[in-house]
């Protein structure tokens, strides 16, 4: 189990989109990966949970979190192995940890907790809640956006993760992210 959650090291800069549901993470992460022509790591939980919903109309259970974490790390490690200067991740294990704490009364599997804290990224782009909430089969907290945003921000601060908050609509967020990533890449070379 531990090996499946361990992050593989590489020479690439790793960026994570981070924040509550329906704040534009997937849209922005795809735009950034396209802009830089680099690997994009999708959110494994979305595919996994949508499939579960479509087949049984069941929502996420605590038992789903470790398979989700394993799937996420497999996608990320595959992207790192392909090489390149940059990897854009739509999520990471710290997101899964935050959701586990929020939905399951603070409960987090020890192995998930360990690797959510140990795995490292160069920058987190924390998306603010000033985008319209869009309902879908998996989203369920439209009235708790501010509380969830604060949970995500507190996690970044607690674990001393480098982050910036992105606010505004798609274009300003994209421009701000590109400027920050360009500076980060320049500083690494």
Topology:
Elements: H1 2-5, E1 13-18, H2 25-36, E2 39-41, H3 44-56, H4 65-81, E3 86-89, H5 93-103, H6 110-118, E4 123-127, H7 145-158, E5 163-166, H8 170-188
Helix pairs in contact: 2-8, 5-6, 5-7
Multimeric status of the protein: single chain
Low-confidence parts, pLDDT < 50 over ≥5 residues? none
Mean pLDDT: 93
Elements, N to C (H/E): HEHEHHEHHEHEH
Give the % helix: 40-55%
CATH homology group: P-loop containing nucleotide triphosphate hydrolases
What is the CATH first-level class name? Answer: Alpha Beta
Number of helices: 8
Biggest beta sheet attributes: 5 strands, parallel
Domain tally: 1
**In percent, how much strand structure appears in the residues?**
5-15%
| Secondary structure: number of strands | 5
Looking at CATH, which topology would you report?
Rossmann fold
Distance between the termini: 35 Å
CATH architecture call: 3-Layer(aba) Sandwich
Radius of gyration: 16 Å
Structural class: alpha/beta
Query: Which descriptor suits the 3D outline?
Result: globular
Strand order of the largest sheet: 2-3-1-4-5
Organism: Aquimarina hainanensis
InterPro entries: NAD_biosynth-regulator, NadR/Ttd14_AAA_dom, P-loop_NTPase
Pfam families: AAA_28
Domain NadR/Ttd14 AAA: 14-169
Task: Sum up the structure in keywords.
5 strands, 189 residues, alpha/beta, AAA family ATPase, NAD_biosynth-regulator, 52% helix, Rossmann fold, 8 helices, P-loop_NTPase
């Amino acid at each position: 189990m531990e090996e499946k959650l361990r992050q593989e090291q590489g020479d690439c800069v790793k960026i994570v989109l981070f924040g509550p549901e329906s704040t534009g993470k997937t849209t922005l992460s795809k735009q950034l990966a396209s802009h830089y022509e680099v690997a994009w790591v999708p959110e494994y939980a979305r595919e996994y949970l949508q499939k579960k919903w479509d087949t049984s109309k069941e929502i996420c259970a605590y038992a789903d979190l470790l398979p989700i974490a394993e799937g996420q790390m497999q996608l990320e490690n595959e992207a790192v192995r392909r090489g390149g200067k940059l990897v854009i991740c739509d999520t990471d294990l710290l997101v899964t940890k935050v959701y586990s704490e929020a939905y399951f009364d603070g409960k987090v599997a020890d192995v998930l907790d360990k690797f959510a804290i140990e795995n490292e990224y160069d920058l987190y782009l924390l998306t603010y809640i000033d985008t319209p909430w869009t309902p879908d089969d998996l989203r369920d907290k439209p009235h708790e956006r501010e509380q969830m945003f604060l949970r995500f921000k507190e996690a970044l601060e607690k674990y001393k993760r480098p982050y910036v908050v992105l606010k505004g609509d798609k274009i300003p967020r994209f421009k701000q992210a590109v400027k920050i990533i360009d500076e980060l890449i320049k500083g690494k070379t």
